[in-house]
Design goal:
Blueprint (H helix, E strand, L loop, with lengths): L1 E3 L4 H12 L4 E5 L2 H12 L5 E5 L5 H15 L4 E4 L15 H29 L2 E4 L4 H4 L5 H21 L1
Parallel strand pairs: 1-2, 1-4, 2-3, 4-5
Helix pairs in contact: 1-2, 3-4, 4-6
Length: 166
Amino acid sequence: AIVTGAGRGIGFGIARAFAREGARVAVADIDPVTAQAAATDLAALGGEVMAETCDIRQSSQVDEFVEKVVARFGGIDILVNNAMAAEIRVPLETITDEGIALALATGPAATLYFLRACHPHLARSQGRVINLRSGSEIQGLDGYCTYIAAKAAIGGITRAAAREWG
């Protein structure tokens, strides 16, 4: 199971649940310190774990990460696209270009990078993909425009992938 953003927070919780169930877990995180700390904690549960630094905004790093996972574990059965960064609590009229780029690069673009890189391996194993979305897509929240836009795009990507691969 590949889990992006598994160095802490929700991603770590997802990785921990997989490790407890006996899955071999690949931790992808931009922070090498939290990635290694997560791997140490997960390995203590008795599972096989690897951790690598991966900037999900860079398709080349995603490709390299996936190659390392396949070399280590022989394939991929589960992909969890969890990691995403966005500036929140920012009024729409003050959103910066950098804020827009951050949400789109770490949300829909990173999701596409991982789907593309993992597809050949997931197809061989009848693998599963979990793309995290948000209830805020429907509600709309003040100051969350870039976050909501990115999560809504991930929803569209998920539906398209399900139609193509299902």
